[in-house]
Design goal:
- It is a single chain.
- The chain is mainly beta.
- The N and C termini lie close together (9 Å).
């Protein structure tokens, strides 16, 4: 995978404060964007990045992070839709969370142990 490192936009940038557009074309341009997103995320030492964090208002995010057992999970999510689990199915894992668009800030934030969304996904090559 080869991609161009793009600057991470930070809080206050308008692209972070408006809903993103759905992806409608799954083509080479989207593949190049995904490569740029991975390159930008790795350069910023992050574990996840949304397209709007590099100034592109599309509903895409990439991730590459280990779970509690050290197993690496890497992929691309396109057009995610939030799915709220039932009360008995909701499990949270406490931990500190940060955001590349809010540099240097971390806070304890319980997060779902399973992704709460449905989307077009594809695993990414290691």
């Amino acid at each position: 995978m080869v991609g161009e490192v793009r600057p991470i936009v930070t809080v206050g940038d308008p692209v972070l404060h408006h809903p993103c557009e759905p992806v409608t074309r799954f083509d080479g341009e989207l593949a190049a964007l995904v490569d740029d997103m991975f390159a930008s995320m790795y350069a910023a030492e992050g574990v996840g990045l949304a397209a709007n964090q590099i100034g592109v208002p599309l509903r895409v995010f990439v991730y590459d992070c280990p779970d509690d057992e050290g197993v690496r999970h890497k992929g691309v999510v396109v057009n995610p839709e939030l799915e709220v689990p039932g009360l008995g199915e909701r499990h949270l894992d406490a931990g500190d969370e940060g955001c590349l668009s809010v540099p240097g800030q971390y806070a304890p934030l319980p997060a779902p142990t399973a992704p709460p969304c449905a989307a077009s996904t594809r695993p990414a090559s290691p």
